[in-house]
Amino acid sequence: MLGSTHGTLTTHSRPARVVACGEQPPPTVHGVPEPRGGDGGERDGAAVDRDVSGRPLYAEVPDLDRFFRPRAVAVVGASDGEGRPNTGITRQLIAWAERVGARLHLVNPGREKVFGRPCHASVADLADLTDPTGHCEPIDLAVLLVADPVPVIEQLGDAKVAFAVAFASGFAETGADGAAAQDRLAEAVDRAGLRLLGPNTNLNAFETFREDLDGPAIALITQSGHQGRPVFTLQELGIRLSHWAPTGNEADLEVADFLSYFASRPEVGAIAAYVEGLKDGRSFLLAADRAARHKVPVVAVKVGRTETGARMAASHTGKLTGADEVVDAAMRQFGVIRVDGLDELQDTAALLARARKPIAEGVAVYSISGGTGAHFSDLATAAGLRLPALPRAKQDELHQWIPDYLSVANPIDNGGHPVGDWRGRKIIDAILADPSIGVLICPITGPFPPMSDTLAQDLVDAAERTDKLVCVVWGSPVGTEDAYRRTLLGSSRAATFRTFANCITAVRAYLDHHRFVDGYRSPFDDAPRVLSPSARKAQALLRPGRQLSEHAAKQLLRAYGIRVPREQLVTSAAAAVRAASQVGYPVVMKASGPQLAHKTELGLVKVGLTSASQVRDAYRELTDIARYEDVPLDGVLVCQMIERGVEMVVGVTHDSLFGPTVTVGLGGVLVEVLRDVAVGVPPFGEDRARAMLGELRGHALLDGVRGAPPADIDALVEVVLRAQRMALELGSELAELDINPLVVLPRGQGAVALDALAVCHGTDGESPARGS
Description:
By secondary structure, this protein is an alpha/beta fold. About 35% of the residues lie in helices and about 20% in strands. The longest helix has 19 residues, at about 500-520.
């Protein structure tokens, strides 16, 4: 993936600048654009690489090599004064520069030397630096130890500096005034043509990483430095870390930038992230897509599940948290593994970084206690892991070494692992030899030497000689035992956990990840790039700043090929009778007006009308109620009555982070009570639309219950995909769409939208309040 940056886009639109003598190209995209359908997820800047909504389809990847492995570093505001905060930071940066082999240049107008090193009087001096050979030496990274970085940023731009880090706080995390100051900082960064980490960040990127560890590494991204500590300390357990990106307030560089960069680093086996808020939803999806293309697992804690958590996240980082249901769906859709606790983050990331691809998905549980095996198996099965019963021949083989009265079907109860001979290893090898087993888990609830010591050693020996995953749960609260500290942690092949829950979470994520990436096809490759004829028809129906009547909303659906009942809009009782005869009895009559959202509650729907007299009476009643309620109408709809089917809802709404989103769920009058919906974030394909249906608690209704025939799921999926196309093409004009109920008829008979509500964005981009 290394190569030219010619023809690529930067994350922010910046004017091109001439590269000075000896200067490196500006930090834009790392790597050559890959052809469509490749596994890199990055493209050149051609117009075709934007979808119909105008948003990018491929990740733009900063060349962060110059940030993490700079050749020349400047420290602006360097100090060695006693008791000053900058002194400790300067000392740490000097040590870090020596470790990474970077030449260090200190800047402080008030000092000639800092820690015995010569000090430049101004940032302007950085433009004229030369290396020991006399060649021009551009600064790759400037670390700003100043309270107000804006003036310095502008000077760094003149000096052609590539990256800067701003530690200063007092920006968007403090409120409106701080947000305005951060906007000014972002504007200065744009003008300067460099990239900025921060503000309100810390020194985590410049930590001491152990270089004596091998194997695939974890790359860490955090928006709160302290929250990354548990993952960073995994090094003490022998697990390698390669990078730590503390993104802070993200005035410029954001989580997505580092995620995209880490996804193609050869040493990175997994990416762990602590996220408080996403700066831009599309950028995050493109970065996650890039990781999925490269088959790199991403494990994330995303706070903001609750109102309190969301409020705290906003106060900490000054970013929008977004509706959590949408964030959750977006992560699931692009293979990001969302966990809740930092302990889960470290254990899951560690397993995914180091474990080989599974050979089979079956899990075997091996224990020295029947109670332990039963307990663990209950939890594992409830979490969705598959524990296949071992074949009779395999059970007979195991009973050569395990007493006949113990169950070895799975879980396997050995009654006490053999200590004095070779039988223990034979048992483990025999389990791993079964072709249905891809993962062996041995829960050890507490040390019981010498049995637990021998068991640990046998498990490690087996793990070193198999391509299958061997996991051990060491349940001792002490954690100082030799069997744990030396035997288990000394192995790079056996995965060790301290709790049942974390082991199960990690193994499930491991199997889910490989299943996901093996079948992954990027939806961005197939996203529409050209407006359809349907869009032109629909745009003529939209009214900026207004809610459409049901009749107009259904015309919108028709434009996109979504089936609606036969119906006519009438303005007199006589016309209603004529319409009913043409539509065909029985009919439904509904008031239609641009401010009507809940017609049933107002008595503005009449169902099952079978005669002309009922139609005339219904017309008069509907118009009388509308006059009494002071509800303006554009007429009364006389509709075909659809009697059989499953009532669903399909909707389009606008998320503050991800833009247009699509929902599907159980519909009808109780939709807001049941709240059984699944979310899709465009673009997505048919597989994702079907997966959304599988996420519904009431999915069984579509399969047919209590004698009802199976519903036409293919037709429902088609409606979801057509709604998505509408969301992509009309997203800037259509604020909200509700198709409720969408009646899904028996298999092969289609789906019919009985009602629809559409709300248009105003000319200022805001959507009006829905009608009552």
